[in-house]
Amino acid sequence: MSSFPVAIGREHHAFRKWSIDRGVQINGIEAGVMPGQGMGIYATRDIEENEVVLQVPLSAMLTIDSMPKDFVAKFAADAPVQGIMAAYLMIASEKYSQSTSAPGDDDLGEIENEYDIRPWLDVLPSKQDIKRSLPLVWPDKFKKWIQIDMNDSAVNQHEETGNSDSSRANKRRKVSGGADYGDVLLTPCLSGLWNTLPNAAKGPSYDRSKHQHILSRQENRLLRTWDFVSAALPDADWDTFLYYWLIINTRCFYYDGSMAGEGDPRSQGKSLDDNDSIAMMPFADYFNHTNKPGCKAQFDGQQYTFLTTKKHVKGEEIFVSYGQHPNDFLWAEYGFFLDENDSDTLYLDDIILNDLTSADLEELQGWQYLGNYQLFAGEVCYRTEMAACLKHMPRDDWRAYVYGESTQSVDDEKTARIIKEWICKYLEECEAALKALASQDSNDDPSQTDDNVDYREALCVKRWRQIRDLCKRTLDAYIQ
After folding, report:
1. What pairs with residue 299 in β-bridges?
2. Which terminus of the chain is less hemmed in, N or C, by CB atoms within 10 Å?
């Protein structure tokens, strides 16, 4: 471990041995810590391209198919896999904290002693780490309408009252539509709220991209899952369940049970929930993400293989890719975002919908051009350009343009000017949010340490500055 600036703890060495005992093959890599960063995977020697550095067999993974059948049977057939897995870890951790032996079969079902997962649980990020990085569980001043608090006993519907009602209303106290939201500190993609625009939906409804209103989507998924878990396990503790749900959300891998010949329909792509095709993999969950990874993961039905795609020198961190995602999505799902992200995207939907007439919106919907207006570094998407054209073109000419029959009345300068106005509106929001963050009192939430509050505010400032730079680069491209 001398290659790494900071040595890992004893529990990580125990977990490494535990993983190897279960068939995980580790070749030329090790888990380590860099100053100012979390755990990661590093090369212990020079590694060539196309080297297998890690293999995780199916038998070592935690999946819906590997959990005890009698435990899974406690849940409804359409219960989300992530919730069942979180409940499994929750009960396992409670059993392990009460006994030095493997858990019995009262809650978890029959578990062979060799599948004692205590070493794995011992190396997971702490509850404090989760609270610090994931906006979903931040204090109310950041979230506004999302009221999930890991320290709020009021969200646990079973506490003292004995109320077994699993209604998600017990855990959510949304701000009414006409309320004053105050300063909005998180980005619109995360919160769905603005400082400089009306926070009310306008025009026809449509299916927003999964990269918009991310936290409300995440909250709905979490609370729906809790409904299933609390119904199956009436004594389940909300705080502990929330922690393990977030752990799985940040550390799981894609798993296709049909490739493995396993039985649960939810692992075979037959579920309506895309999040059901997941697995937890020991040691592999140390890998960090980049958009330009040096390692790729492959699943053949029997094992996951991690193969390098470039050379690495001794001591260099080896990254994988979690997928090509914008920074706001990474932030909400994993608790971090990248300094440089070629996939970073902003959505102009709220700005554009507020700028168009009701007739314009109905026209766009009729032609399937309503919504999902994206801004990248230096350009906007074709849908945005079509919306801008509609704003200045006669309706019949615009329809002919959509058909590809005519470019009459198409005016690139007018289109560019409209798009620039929309980008400038986003820049106004950047400045408003940064001003609001600068005026925050770090001591206005006595339940939080100054370090945590400052860290969260610093993350918000960093992200808003990224957005400002992204807007300015795109604006410059339209000015030239």
Report:
1. 304
2. C
